[in-house]
Amino acid sequence: MTQESARTPHGSDSTGQGQSGGAPDFTRAQVEALFLDAAREGEAELLARFLDAGMQASLRTDKGYTPLILATYNGHLEAARVLLAHGADVDAQDEKGATALAGVAFKGDLALARLLLEAGAGVDVANAVGRTPLMFAVMFGREDMARLLLAAGADPYRRDGEGLNAIELARRQGGAALAQVLAQEPQKP
Description:
Number of strands: 0
Structural class: mainly alpha
Number of helices: 10
Largest sheet: none
Helix content: 40-55%
Radius of gyration: 21 Å
């Protein structure tokens, strides 16, 4: 192996140390990728170290995913707590308009939903096609999640881009019992 081929990007040698023998030389993009991977993998302590060193809690990927969206979608409660404590935007939306709460509603993770709601997550923030977290909960048969979102003030009468509301979506999915629960909510003015 030649000396040049033993080097990693930006002057690091195969040990990961810079040419001067000090700390590894990473590009900003590489550091950001490591930070986002830590969020995706739920490495709360590593996230805290990145954030304490100045990394932005609401950094975005090219698809608009934030560390909070990545951590919550992958079920990492402690990582989400760390990010929120460091100012992560609880209602940040990805390129399709989905928030962390929408992903959690889809997955049915009640503990994460409670955390996001306690942090001020908008319960009716709709994605690019008008679907709210409640609609995702309904579409994927997450009845406990739907009840939690209703208790937090979700509007079951709000319509998506197809003109459907959560009650109609529940009926369409074969969830007559859930549709009945949703329909018991008073319609908002």
